[in-house]
Design goal:
By secondary structure, the chain is mostly beta strands. About 0% of the residues lie in helices and about 60% in strands.
Length: about 120
């Protein structure tokens, strides 16, 4: 299973960006999906989580500004970021809990998978 994040870039403070993360490979079902971020010198921080039924949860720093969503038909999770601030500058990583698909077409084990991050830089 591979996760590929995209959509990062340079944006001015107050601007918006939309991140995408596509999961591919031998996937039976994707459970919770998350976005995390890590700024230089800081610990990794949970930004947002979305469950299979669409329930969402956000870190205090991004509540009211970021929105997480998912498209299960495309195995994709999104992060719409608005009112961006310089302190939002970080590498954004996606994470998903995935049941793999066995060669016999049955549900395999559940594992956590990380994608390579995409850099978001917010200028003041």
């Amino acid at each position: 299973v591979q996760l590929q994040a995209s959509g990062g870039g340079l944006v001015q403070a107050g601007g918006s960006l939309r991140l995408s993360c596509v999961a591919s490979g031998s996937i039976y079902r994707i459970n919770d999906m998350r976005w995390c971020r890590q700024a230089p010198g800081n610990q990794r921080e949970l930004v947002a989580t979305i469950t299979t039924d669409g329930s969402t949860n956000y870190g205090d720093a991004v509540k009211g500004r970021f929105t997480i969503s998912r498209d299960d038909a495309k195995n994709t999770v999104y992060l719409q970021m608005s009112s961006l601030r310089p302190e939002d500058t970080a590498v954004y990583l996606c994470n998903a809990d995935v049941y793999t698909l066995t060669p016999w077409g049955r549900r395999g084990g559940l594992g956590g998978y990380w994608g390579k991050g995409t850099l978001v830089t917010v200028s003041s």
